[in-house]
Amino acid sequence: MADVASVVLDITRSGGGVGAEVRGVDLRRVDAATFAAIHHAWIEHQVLLFRGQSLDDDDLIVFSRRFGGLDHAPIQENGRRFVEGKPEIYVVSNVIENGVAIGSLGAGEAVWHTDMSYLEDPPKASMLYALEVPPAGGDTWFSNMYTVFETLPPGLKGRAEKLMIKHDGTYNSGGYVRLGVTPTDDPRASPGAVHPLVCRHPESGRRCLYLGRRRNAYLMGLDLSESEALLDQLWECATKPELAWTHHWRVGDLVMWDNRCTMHRRDPFDNASRRVMHRTQIKGENRPAA
Ligand code: SIN
User: Fold this and answer.
1) Please, which pLDDT band fits residue 1 given cuts at 50, 70 and 90?
2) For atom 5 of ligand 1, which residue has the closest CA?
3) Which of 177, 193, 237, 288 is the most buried (most CB within 10 A)?
């Protein structure tokens, strides 16, 4: 990899608890030194925003692949919604064309989550590129799970370090049942993967809380009521507005986030407006580990 110091990026912190904007980079033309600097900035800031991009789907795939192999679009409430011929591009949209949804997640709230943590090997990163945005609403929030862990009250932190958590695979962040899954609201019985509740990031070496999503989560080995009470406490700490950054989208924005140390959620918006986003997901190279 090229020497990071050979390119200095124009970086402005978001002003929230996580994230930064990188200016002056055309993501269609990223040389090795610039890529190394972007990668370095991403590990440091966890979420990066690049405004004013003009990417077609192939450009988005090429830039995403610089970070690793790509997943195919996940199975959502209405199956896999991807761009024709490009299964790596997952469409997030409320638009219905000829009676068929072109994407997933509709226009409602997408609750706090990290992507696909219900898998044994969750994706390490996701990129979302804005093609059409509503005039209001549909903002995406990001939280900093390093800071969440570091600021837990000492007693809670000590307990969290010893626990494993089951991440539910029944519902997506829009509250819809994933296609092919038989729904259950018993967190002990629902499908999902078990990961350490406190994970060490394989690249930064920092520790963070790895919560996934609230619904149907279960802290292994605890009585259900104890698990629920402890999760409620942890989620209260994890969703403090001061630890988050809210991004208001413009067409041409590309935002990439690190699923290993952030969570995100989306505000609802008026379903009469169109919101069309193309998303890629980069495969994880390491299972979440303490
Ligand atoms: C997602 O959770 O990946 C979608 C976020 C968004 O629509 O802003």
Assistant:
1) very low
2) 266
3) 288
Lookup: tokens for 76: 């959502």
Tokens for 290, please give them.
Answer: 């303490």
Q: Residue 4 pLDDT more than 70?
A: no
Query: What backbone torsions phi and psi does residue 10 show, to the nearest 5 degrees?
Result: -90, 100
Using the mean position of ligand 1's atoms as its centre, give its distance from the Cα of residue 168 in Å.
Answer: 18
Q: Would you say the CB of residue 277 lies under 6 angstroms from ligand 1?
A: yes
What is the pLDDT at residue 9? 95
CA separation for the pair 192, 220 (Å, rounded): 12
Question: In this structure, what token pair is assigned to residue 283?
Answer: 């495969």
Tell me how long the chain is: 290
- The 3-class secondary structure across 26-92, one letter per residue, is CCCCCCHHHHHHHHHHHHHHCEEEECCCCCCHHHHHHHHHCCCCECCCCCECCECCEECCEEEEEEE
Query: If you average pLDDT over every residue of the chain, what do you get?
Result: 93
Answer yes or no: are the C-beta atoms of 218 and 165 closer than 8 Å: yes
Percent of the chain with pLDDT over 90: 81
Q: Is 116 in the pocket of ligand 1 (CB under 6 A)?
A: no
Q: How far does the centroid of ligand 1 lie from the alpha carbon of residue 129, in Å?
A: 10
